[in-house]
Amino acid sequence: MAHHRIAIQGVAGSFHDIAARRYFGSTGQDIDILECETFDQLCEAVANNTATAGMMAIENTIAGSILPNYALLQAYNLSVIGETYVRIQHNLLALPGQTIDDIHTVQAHPMALLQCRDFFAKYRHIHLEEAFDTAGIAKKIRYENLRGVAAIAGYLAAELYQLDTLAESLESNKQNFTRFLAISRTANPISREYNKASIGFRVAHTSGSLADALSIFKRNHINLTKIQSIPIIGVPYEYMIHVDMVWDDISDFQQALREFKPQALELKVFGVYKEGEKNIDLTTKHRISVREPDDPDAPHEVLEPSKKHLDGRMHIQSWRQWIPPARAIPQDYIMISGPCSAETEEQVLETARRIAATGVASVYRAGIWKPRTRAGGFEGHGTKALPWLQRAKAETGLLMAVEVATAQHVEDCLKHGIDILWIGARTTGNPFSVQDIADAARGTDVGMMVKNPISPDLELWIGGIERVYRAGINKLIGIHRGFSTHEKSKFRNHPTWAIPMQFRERLPDIPLLNDPSHITGKREFLAEVAQKALDLGMNGFIIESHIDPDNAWTDAAQQVTPEALQELLATLVWQPAYGTNTHQDTSKLDILRSAIDRLDAEFVELLAARMHIVREIGAYKRYHNMDILQPARWEEIMQKRLAQGGKLGLGEEFIKAIFADIHRESLALQESS
Ligand code: PEP
Ligand code: MN
Q1: Known catalytic residue: 178?
Q2: In terms of domains, do 118 and 167 share one?
Q3: What CATH number did the domain enclosing 473 receive?
Q4: Do 482 and 343 lie in a common domain?
Q5: Tens digits of per-residue pLDDT, 193-216?
Q6: Does residue 589 lie in a domain region?
Q7: Is residue 492 within 6 Å of ligand 1 at its C-beta?
C-alpha cells in the first residue's frame, strides 16, 4: 500500500491533522503527518516533494476566509485535489488525574479563547493566556509534564497526547466548521467523479464585464457556491475573483470554461475535485491507532528531549531542487566525486574535466584544509586553492563542495562561491566547532553535509545536523564514512551499518550518502561497500577520484581515476533509494522489505560460514583431546556480543537468546562430527 506524508499547519493532533486523517485516511491510504509551523512552509513542503500532499484550512464558518492561502496556492503552483469539512469542537484537556478546580491557566489561540468565552466566564479562577497554537499546547503539556495548565483542542489531541478531557464542546456557537483543502503538486484529471472546481480570474475594469463573465456559468447550469474578491498585492484596487462552483455534469463545466477563457484577462483553475461532505455527524470521530494509554498510576512520562527537537519537524529542501543528477548513474541518487585534496591548479581542473566528461558526479569535492590525524603530512593549500575551484566550476558547471572546520573557512568558501560545505568526521565530534560553523553559515543558502563523527556515536552525528538545521540551513545531507572502533576489520573505518540505519530512522528527511573511500581506505573494496550501501537504500555517494591516484598527496590507496569510477558505478545494482517517489510502484515499505530480505540472506550466509568454522574447531579439539564445552571462551563470546549489541541498541535478552541458540547448535555440531 502506498505511504503518504501529508503536510499540515500545526502539530499532530490539531484540526488540520483531523482533516488530513479524515480525508486521506478514508481512502485506505497509510499516512503520516508532516508538521509545519506556517501555511507557507506547508505549501513549500508540498511543492518541494517533502510531503506527498497537504491539508490546508481555507475558511471557517465563524472567522471567515483565510485569504492569503489562495495566494500561496498560486505562488507555489499547487492544485486543489479535494476538500473536507471539520467541526471545530473545543475540549478542555489536561494531564490525567486533575479536575477543573486544579487548573489555574488555560493557554490557547486567541480565536479559540474568544469562542469559548462564555464557558470560562463560569470559572473565574482560570487565567486565560494567548498562545500560538492550540494543539501545540496540548503537546507541550504532555512533553513538559505541566500540571495546573489546560489546553483547548480537539479530541485527537487528547488521544495522541494522552490527556484527560475535563469538559467537552466549550464553544458557544456549535455551528463552527472549517473547510480544508487537500492540495498537491499534480492536479486531478478531468473526470466524472468530480463535481466541484475552484478557479481564480481577473476581468477588465469596464462596466458589466464581471457580470457578463459570471453569466456564462449560469447559462451552463453551473452553481456558484462561493465568490470572493482578493486584492492583488502591488496593484491597488485590482482584484482576483475566486469562485467555487458545483455541477451535475462535468461537460457543462468544460463548456463554461471554453466560453469563459476569452473573457478573462487571467484565469487560474486551482483544481477540480469532489465536493466534501458537509452534513458530518457533529461528534464523528474516525479511527486512529494510538499507543496504549499509560498505566494511570505510573508517573507521567516526560518524553525524551532529543526526540522533541527534530523528529518529524524538519523542513528540508528536496535535494532534487539544488543538486542536478549525474549522467552516468540513475537519477535517483546524489553523486559527489573529486580528489581527497586540491594539490595543484592543473590537478583540480583536470580532475574536474574528467569527472564532467564521464558524468560520474554532478558535485565536485576537494579538500582545501586537510585535518590529518598526525602532524607533518600535507595539510592543504588553504584559501589559495579556492580560486582553482571557482575556475573548475566555471569550466565544467559542477557544483563545488569543500570541507570546513572553522567559521573562517566558511566565510572564505562563501566568498568564493562554493556551493556546498561539509563538516568532516573529526569536526563533527566537537559541538563547539560545529556550532561555530553553523553560525557562520546562518542566513546563507549554502548546502551543508555532516559526516558521521569518528566515534560510533549516533547522537553526536544527529546533534551536528541539528545545529546546522537550527541555523536555518535547509539544504542538508548526512554522510556515512565509517567509524573508528576496536573491532578488527579489513577496512580503514568500520562501516557499522546499524548506525546509518538508525540515523535514517530518526531523520528520514535527510538524504544519506555513503563514503566508501574513507570506509575502505583501499580502492579494491570500494565496490563491495558501495553495493552494500545501495542495498540498504542509501541516497548516493561521495567517492574520491584523482587523475593519478597512486601519486595522490593524501589518501592515495583509496582513490581511483574518474574513468575507473565510471566502470565501478556501472557494475553496481542500483536498488531503489530510500525516500524516492519516482518509483511510483515501489512504496517505502517495499524498499524496506527488500532491504530486510537482503540482510536476512546475508545473515543466514554468515551463520553457515560460522558453523563451518565451528566444525573445524571441533576437529581441532578432538585431535588435542580438549573438552567440547569451553565455558570461559563461551563467556567471552557472550560478553563481547552483549557489549556490541548494547552499543547498537539491541536488547540484552535478545542477544542472549540468539547466542544461546547459536551456541547450542555449535556444540551439537561438534558432538556429532
Ligand atoms: C575527506 O573527505 O577527505 C576526509 C578527511 O574525510 P573524513 O572527515 O571522513 O575523514
Ligand atoms: Mn580523504
Answers
A1: yes
A2: yes
A3: 3.20.20.70
A4: yes
A5: 999 999 999 887 777 888 888 999
A6: no
A7: no
